[in-house]
Write a sequence for this structure.
């Protein structure tokens, strides 16, 4: 019990310390909560990719959400939840059968940024598609306020 | 001073707890050390990109180092330090003037995996090159044992 108390104390102090060191939004929370927010958001994201129903993901996004995407119509930096909603719906039109995350390779992060590396596959406009992807979430309070996506292949191998 | 002591204690306890929870190689160390190993390795990596002198980076790699690269001759998964040495030297032949990391966007990680997101630029076989990149390092003891690279653009924007 003594060890457990120390761990919890450590987490709280670390969380407050790290949060104080950088702006992470109006409702900053300790790191332990940020990880839970990110993990829950990732499940909503996974569901959106697989089914085209992005409601759970959209519910986690802050109004000033920014995102970066590597290629195509939405390549580059974008700002605002409204544009994000357009973007993720657009992804599902390109993959009408959904994109299945077949393996989560790593979950990493510790303060306010969390990175998920995974393999995925689907059918992109009629062609078989496989990729490795890293998505990086910034957590602000109980929302995701930043998203950056990176590709690990040309869409043919994972 | 009291707060500082608590933070340090927290880091040590957290490190031991997290390391105990998963295998990170033969010489497991607390997370605080793993972060230092990763950050030092990243500086060697940055130096290698910029100058073509990869010695500091190579010194951090374990003999069973594995790496994943997204495209080209070395696309996919590879194993072994010897092949890694060939690969990074090959990168420098493609960028004889070096690749400069112009901004580190995020450093994240907390247990044995650390991700660096950055903007870079250089000249690739005579053509201007800009990208966003995420590199993910796995730390085993005092070495880097895994590396996965992901691209945030098609090499034309960052």
């Amino acid at each position: 019990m003594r060890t457990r108390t120390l761990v919890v104390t450590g987490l709280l102090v670390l969380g407050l310390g790290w949060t104080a060191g950088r702006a992470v939004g109006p409702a900053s929370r300790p790191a332990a909560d940020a990880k839970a927010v990110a993990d829950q958001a990732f499940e909503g994201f996974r569901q959106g990719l697989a089914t085209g129903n992005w409601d759970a993901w959209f519910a986690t996004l802050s109004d000033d959400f920014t995102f970066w995407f590597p290629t195509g119509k939405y390549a580059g930096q974008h700002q605002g939840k409204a544009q994000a909603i357009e973007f993720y719906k657009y992804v599902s039109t390109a993959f009408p059968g959904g994109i299945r995350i077949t393996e989560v390779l790593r979950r990493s992060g510790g303060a306010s940024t969390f990175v998920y590396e995974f393999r995925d596959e689907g059918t992109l406009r009629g062609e078989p598609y496989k990729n490795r992807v890293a998505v990086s979430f910034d957590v602000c309070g109980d929302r995701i306020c930043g998203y950056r996506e990176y590709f690990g292949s040309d869409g043919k191998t994972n």
Summary: Chain B has four helices and six strands. Chain B touches chain A at residues 3, 6-7, 9-11, 13-14, 17, 68, 70-71, 75-76, 105-106, 108-111, 113-115, 117, 132-134, 136, 138, 148-154, 157 (CB under 8 Å). Confidence is low (pLDDT under 50) at residues 1-27 of chain B. The domain at 25-151 of chain B is CATH 3.10.450.50 (Nuclear Transport Factor 2; Chain: A,).
